[in-house]
Amino acid sequence: MISTSMSEFRDRLIAAAPPSTEFGFQGLRAADSIAVEASLPLSFIVACDWGMDGSKWNTRLKYFAVERDSGKRIVWTHTSIVEAYKCKWGTEIKAYLTSSDVPRIIVPYRSTEFLEQLASESSGRISILANPLALKTRLDDKVAFRQEAENRGIPVAPGETIQIGDLSAELFQKWGPQIIVNEQIGSSGNQTHLIETPAELTSLQKRLIKKSGEDTPIIVCRFLSGPAIGAAAIVFRGHTRMSYPSAMITGLPGSSMHRFDYAGSDYGAFHRLPEAASEKIRAHTLNLGEWAAGLGYKGLFGVDFVVHDGEPYALELNPRLLGTSQLMTELELHENPGPSTISWHLAELLGVGVQEDETSPELERIGASSLHGFQLLLRNTQPHPVRIGRTIKPGIYTLTGETPNFIRDGDRIADLEGPEEILVTCSPPETGTAVEPRGAFFKLEGLGRLLDDTVETVTPMTTRMVSSFTESLQLSAKF
Asked: Which of 122, 313, 383, 464 has the fewest Cβ atoms within 10 angstroms?
C-alpha cells in the first residue's frame, strides 16, 4: 500500500539506503538543505555561506561552509564550490567523508567532478543522488536545447545559431533593435547578454573569443519582453509530471546587477497569466521532459520561458535542483503535508518507486493545486565591495513603515502567520562582513506577492522591501 503521509514516505526513503547510512547535502546555500531535510535526516551540509544563522546549523549538523571564518561574503555560484574543493576546505571534506566505513549519501544541488571522483574511489561507501555530470552538461547546452525545442514544435525566440567569430552589426538589422546573445552554456542569467549597440556587440565578441574561441556556437535572437516563468517538473519512472511553476523577477534595482540577473520568484503570479499561456507552458514542459527522460535523466528539472504577447517561448532547461526548490518545498508542505516534489525526486534517484506509485493519489497531487509565496534575494549591486555596518538578524519581520520591524524568531515558511510577515533567512552576514559585488546579503520569503496583476511589474511593497532592508544594513564602502 502506498504511503499517505510524509513521515511514512520518509521511512521508505531511509529504508532504501544501506543500514546506518548518513545523508548530506551540497548546495550554494545552507538554507537550501531544508528541501532535502524534509525527506531525509541530514548529518552534514556543504555550502558556500556562513552568517548569523551559521551557529544554529552547526550545532546540529556537520557544516562545511566556504565563507566560515573569512569575514567575506563571496558570490554564491557553483564555481565557488568547485574552486573551494581544490583547497584546504576540500581536503577537510574528503577527510570527513572517508573517515569511516559508514555509508554516506550526498544529495547535491548538482553533481561536481570532486564528488563523482570521490564516489568512484570509495568502493561504494559514498554515493551521489544526482544525475551524472556528463548528462547535466549535455542538457545544459542551450544550442542543443533550442534545436530540440524547434524539432518538437515548441516556439523559441526568433533568431539563429552562429559562431562567435561571426557576430556583427548586421544582426541588428535581422533581429534588433535589441538583441539577446546567449552563450552555449550558462546559468543564473550570467551568460545571457542584452545588446543594444554595435559597440556593445564588438566588446562582447572580444570577451567571448578570449573565453571560448571564435568557432564556438552562440545564439543570437530578438529580445522578447514579458513575464519570465520558471516551470518545474519531475521525471519519475520514465514519465514526466508537472510540478509548480513560478514567475521570476530579473533585473530588479537593488537586487540585480544586470537585466537578466535573477532576483526572486513569485508562485502565485503564475496563476495570473492567461489560461492559454499557462496551459502551453505545462504542455511544453512535459514535452521537453520527454527529451530529458529519453536521454536517461531522472528527477526534478526546470524549464524557463518568456511569455511575449501571450505566447510562451522556451529559453532553456535546468537539469538539477532549482534555486526555488527550498521555497517550493516549504510552500508545498504548507499547503499539504503529503510527500513533496523533492520527496519523489529522491525516491526516483534512490530507486524506491514501485509500479503502484505511478497512479498513487500522492503523486497525482503534485502540481495539481496552487502555491502562493515568494522569495527575494538582496545583493550588493555596487561595482565595489561593501561592508555591513549593522546586522539584520534572521527571523520574522513586518514592514509597516520604512524600517523593518523584528517581531519574533523563525526560520521556516511554516513560522509565518500571514502574508504581511516577512522571513529573513539564508545567512544574513555579521557586522563588519565584506560583501563582494553581486554577493547576496540574505533572502526574504513570504506568503504574499512580488508582482502585480500584470505579472510584469513589481508591487510597491517589493520596492519597499528592497530599499528598507538594504538601508537597514548601513552599508559602507570604507575598509
From this structure: 383
More confident residue, 123 or 302: 302
* pLDDT tens string 316-362: 999 999 999 999 999 999 988 889 999 999 999 999 877 778 788 88
- Predicted confidence band of residue 187 (pLDDT cuts 50, 70, 90): low
Q: Which range is least confidently modeled, 2-16, 95-109, 251-265, 438-452?
A: 2-16
pLDDT value for 83: 87
Domain CATH number, residue 97: 3.40.50
Regarding whether 238 and 210 lie in a shared domain, the answer is: no
pTM over 0.90: yes
Picking from 181, 199, 222, the residue at the C-terminal end of a domain is 222
Residue 445, pLDDT score: 98
> Cell numbers of 397, please?
519581520
Cell of 16: 532504501
Angle 140-141-145 (CA atoms, 0-180°, nearest 5)? 100
Find the helix packing angle between 142-151 and 133-140, rounded to 10°. Answer: 70
Please give the mean pLDDT across all residues of the chain. 93
Question: What is the structure's pLDDT at 2?
Answer: 43
* 17: Cβ contacts below 8 Å, ≥ 6 apart: 23, 103, 105, 350
- In this structure, is the dihedral angle defined by the CA atoms of residues 274, 279, 285 and 291, taken in order, positive or negative? negative
Can you give the CATH number for the domain in which 180 is found? Answer: 3.30.1490.20
Cβ-based burial of 368 (10 A; exposed 0-12, middle 13-18, buried ≥19): exposed
Q: Does residue 346 sit in the same domain as residue 248?
A: yes
- What is the number of domains present in the chain? 4
Q: How many residues does the chain have?
A: 479
342 & 455 share domain: no
Beta-strand relationship, 374-379 and 262-266: antiparallel
The 10 Å Cβ neighbour count of residue 423 is 25
- Whether 11 and 112 share a structural domain: yes
Spatial contact of 161 and 143, defined as CB atoms under 8 Å apart? yes
For the chain, helix (H) and strand (E) counts, in that order, are 15, 23
Q: Which three cell numbers stand for residue 27?
A: 548546495
**Contact in structure between 114 and 98 (CB atoms under 8 Å):** no
Contact 407, 396 (CB under 8 A): yes
